[in-house]
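User: Fold this; C-alpha cells only.

Assistant: Input:
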Amino acid sequence: MADQRERAGLQAAIAAFTTWGLLTVYWKQLGEFDPVELIAWRVASAALIMSVAVTVLRRWAPVLGAFRDAPTRLRLGAAGVLLTVNWMAYVWAVTNDRVLETALGYFLSPLGTMAIGVFVLGEQLTPFRWASIGFAATGVVVLTVSYGRVPWIALVIAGSWSTYGLIKRRVPLAPAESLTAEMLVLLGPALLTIVVASSGAGWPGAEAVWAQADGIDWLLVIGTGAITAFPLTLFAFAAQRVPFTLLGPANYLVPLINFLLGWVVYDESLPWVRAVGFGLVWFALGLVTVEMVRAHRRTVRLRREPATVA
C-alpha cells in the first residue's frame, strides 16, 4: 500500500514538473503585458476555478476549518506569499528573455530541498551532500562572474520554491483544498492590483491588460488559472506522498526543459564560462541524485524483506 501511494505521488510529480517546464512557452506569448498584473490575473482566475472545483466536490468544510486554525492559517499565508514571489520572479525572467536563469533557479531548487531536509527535517548531511553543496556554490560563483552580477533571479526562484514545498508538506489539507485556500489568501491583493492597473493609476511604464489585450490574449490571460491549478494540484498531491529524497530529483524536469527552451528555442547566450557554471551545478545534482536513489532503493529493499525470527 505504501509503495502504491508513493508511486502515484511520483507519477503526479513528473506530470506536474513537465507541465511547469512547458509553461515557459505559454508565458512567452504574454510578454507584452506587465508581470505584476499578469500574476494578479493568474491568482484571480485560479481562485475562481478552484472555488468551483471545491464547490462541486463539496469540500468547503476543510477549507473553512483551515482558516479557523491559527497555525494552518499562518502556513497558508506564508505559502501564498512564497508562491507569489516565485511566480513573479519566473514570469518576469521569461518575459525579459532570461529563461536560462529560470533554468538555473530550478536546477538549484533540489539542492535547496536537500538543505531543508538536512537543517529543518533533521536528515544527516553525508560527504556526498557536502560535496554537492560545494560544487553548487562554486557553480554560482562562476555564473556570477559570467553574468557580471549575482544570478538573483535564480536564487529567488530556488529559495522560494524549496521553502514552499516544505510548507505544503505541513498543511493538513488535500491538494484541491490547499490550493483553493492559498488562492483565497491572495485574492484580495490580486483584485486590488487589477483594479488599480485597469483604472490607469498603475505604476510607471505599465499598461493595463484591459487596454492591450485582444481576443486571443484574453483567452491566454484567463487561461492562466487553468494552467496554474492543474500542475499545482498535482504537486500538492505528490508532496504529501513522495519523500523529499525522491521529490528533489523529479524537479530536474522543469529546469531541463527551460534550459533547452532558453538555449535552443529562444537563442539565449551560453558562453563557455556560463556553461561551466551550469556544469558544476549539474555535477552537484548528479552527486545528490546518485546518493538519494541508492538510499531509496535500500529503504525499499529493507521494507520488502521479511523480518527474521530470532
